[in-house]
Every structure is written in C-alpha cells, then in structure tokens.
Write a structure and sequence with these properties.
The complex is a heterodimer of chains A (256) and B (14).
Chain A: E1 2-6, H1 9-19, E2 25-31, E3 34-40, E4 46-53, E5 60-62, E6 66-71, H2 72-79, E7 87-92, E8 98-104, E9 111-117, E10 135-140, H3 141-152, E11 157-163, E12 166-173, E13 176-182, E14 196-199, E15 203-208, H4 209-215, E16 224-229, E17 235-241, E18 244-250, E19 253-254
Antiparallel strand pairs in A: 1-5, 1-7, 2-3, 2-6, 3-4, 4-18, 7-8, 8-9, 10-14, 10-16, 11-12, 11-15, 12-13, 16-17, 17-18
Chain B: E1 3-4
Classes of the chains: A mainly beta (256), B mainly beta (14).
C-alpha cells in the first residue's frame, strides 16, 4: 500500500497546475524512492518528468511499486478543495481502484476526505539518454517566464543562442522582431536572482514558444530555472523544488 | 521558422 503525507498542499496544487495543460492522463509511479511521473503531450513534442522524493513526505510508505493512473484534470478538481497550507495524505491499497486524499487544516480543526477513481493507463516510458549538455543556463524563473511571454507576442518561435557573450532569446514575426540578451550576473546575497551560463560550446536552437510558455506555469514552484541545451537535441528545462524536481523536455524546431 | 521535430527521434522506447 501507499501512504504519503505532504506538509503543504500547495506543492501538489502548483505541480498539477504546471502539468495539466500539457498532459491529460498519466501514471503516478509510486516506489520506495518516491512518486514519479513521466508523460508526453499528445503531439510527442514535449515531455514532463516529475519526481517527488520519499524524503519530501513525512511519513512516506510504499510497500510495493504501484502505478496510479490519474486523469490530471480530475485530480486538479479534487485538489481545488485543499487549502494551500493544508496537510495532504495520499493513500492507495495494493492494486487500487481508488486514490484516497485527506486534507487537514494546520490546526487540525477541519478534515476533508476525498476518493478519486483511478484509470488503467498503458503508458510507454521513454529512455532519456544521459546527456552532457553544451550549455547550462540558470536564471530567475520569473525572468524566463517574462521573456517567453513577451516574445510570444512577436512570434510563435524563439531562437535561443548561448555563447560566451551571454544568452540571447530572439523572435521574428509579422509585426517585427525582438530579442532579450542576458549576461552572466552574480548576486551572492540572492543566488536565485543570478544568471549563470556554463558553456563548453556555443549552442543555437529554435523552439516553439507555445510550449515554453506552458512550461513556465511551473514558475511558482521554484525561484530559479535551469535550461540545458546541446545542438540538435531536445531542450531540458528544470525547476528544482524542495524534495524533487519538475523537468520538461522540448524537441527543437529544425530547418525545413 | 522551421519544422517542429518530435521527441521520438531523440528518446528511445525501452
């Protein structure tokens, strides 16, 4: 059986908000290491990889591996009933038909109990090769969100150019063109506000802004975001949170 | 602005 108690409902609520528009149904794979999810969008352009490590829960118990098939829209509806500060407990039997969710207020004067039907999802896991990326860019998550939103007003696509001079986000469309260049900064007092660029070679890749804007729904989960890129391979966008991560992979646009 | 590729060419099915 699974029993996982999470101190802050907000973590799960924000996580669901960050993935539910990309993925409709997904298996939450529960093991003694924690709860993970890997799912692609319908067009196979983007992939979401979530890990909530066991040590992020207190307590966490999972006797044997379970795949909880969940409609993310349904889970999101149920989680709307949880306050951000509530303590959430997830429970499932071995071979479950239902997932039980309990929301307790901080001072335990209100306990809400929900049961959600599970579904059978036949999901293929893709093998994601270990990649030593040529460019690793860490920047404030809010900055990345703003850049994607602003450039999406100009074009459907953005070209990200990482070089020793900085990282340049550039878009060109019918109304004109625009770009934002970030230089490396150091803000030792607030590392989350710094931009760092580690580069082994220059990288230039073009991506759909529709997907990137979607990924930035994870902004409330983390102060910083890391973009990892190599020429001709998918982009990795990672939001690290306490007790886990939310990663997105995005296939590049290629020359016709 | 180029053709959208998919992840299937990059990531392997097990």
């Amino acid at each position: 059986m699974l029993e996982a108690r999470l101190a802050q409902a907000a973590v799960l609520k924000k996580t669901l908000d960050a993935i539910k528009e990309l993925v409709t149904d997904a298996n939450f794979d529960c093991s003694d290491g924690g709860i993970s999810l890997q799912a692609m969008d319908n067009s196979h352009v983007a992939l979401v990889s979530l890990l909530l490590r066991a040590d992020g829960f207190e307590p966490y118990r999972c006797d044997r591996n379970l795949a909880l098939g969940i409609n993310l829209n349904s889970l999101s509806k149920v989680l709307r009933s949880a306050q951000n500060e509530d303590i959430i407990t997830l429970k499932a039997a071995d071979d479950p038909d239902n997932l039980s969710l309990t929301f307790e207020s901080q001072n335990q004067d209100r306990i809400s109990e929900y049961e959600m039907k599970l579904m059978d999802i036949d999901q293929e896991h893709l093998g994601i090769p270990e990649t030593a990326y040529a460019a690793v860019i860490t920047m404030p998550a809010a900055e990345f969100q703003r850049i994607c939103r602003d450039l999406s007003g100009i074009s459907e696509s953005v070209t990200i150019d990482a070089s020793k001079d900085g990282v340049k986000f550039a878009s060109a469309g019918d109304i004109g063109n625009g770009s934002v260049t970030l230089k490396q900064t150091h803000n030792p007092e607030e590392p989350a506000l710094s931009t760092s660029i580690e580069l082994s070679e220059s990288v230039t890749l073009t991506f759909s802004l529709k997907y990137l804007v979607n990924f930035t729904k994870a902004t409330p989960l983390a102060g910083a975001v890391t973009l990892q890129m190599s020429n001709d391979v998918p982009l990795l966008v990672e939001y690290k949170m306490e007790g886990g991560y939310l990663r997105y992979y995005l296939a590049p646009k290629i020359q016709d | 602005t180029g053709k959208q590729s998919t992840l299937l060419g990059f990531f392997n099915k097990p």
